[in-house]
Amino acid sequence: MSSDLKLCPFCGATARRVDIEDRGDNFGGSCIECTSCRASTALHFDRKENLYSSWNERMTDAATAAQDIIDSLRREREA
User: Fold this and answer.
1) Are 32 and 15 in contact (CB under 8 A)?
2) Does the structure show a pLDDT above 90 at 25?
3) pTM across the whole model
4) Torsion angle, CA of 15/19/23/25, rounded to 10 degrees?
5) Which of 12, 34, 35, 36 counts the most CB atoms within 10 A of its CB?
C-alpha cells in the first residue's frame, strides 16, 4: 500500500503507514509518516479510509504553496 503514497512534500522521501500499537493515549491510531524527515499526518482513529488521501492531498497543497512562493520570488527578482 505504501506505493499508493506520494513522496514527502518537504524532503521528497518515501512515506509509510505507522500504526500505533503501544498502550497509551494514541493506541489504535494510525498516521502516514515520511521515512526521512518524519513529517506526518494527524492521527486517524475511526475513519482510517481517509488516511492515505490525507497525506496525498496534503502533498498537492504543499506543492501548490511552494510553487506560489517560487513564482513570487521570480517576480521580485524581475522587478
Assistant:
1) yes
2) no
3) 0.67
4) 70
5) 34
Cα of 54 vs its chain's centroid, Å:
7
Three-class SS of residue 22? coil
> Is 34 buried (19+), middle (13-18) or exposed (0-12) by CB count in 10 A?
buried
**The C-alpha cell of 50 is what?**
481517509
Copy the grid coordinates of residue 30. 494510525
Q: What is the Cα–Cα distance from 56 to 40, expressed in whole angstroms? A: 11
Nearest residue to 16 (alpha-carbon basis) of 6, 27, 26: 6
Q: Supply the DSSP symbol for 67.
A: H
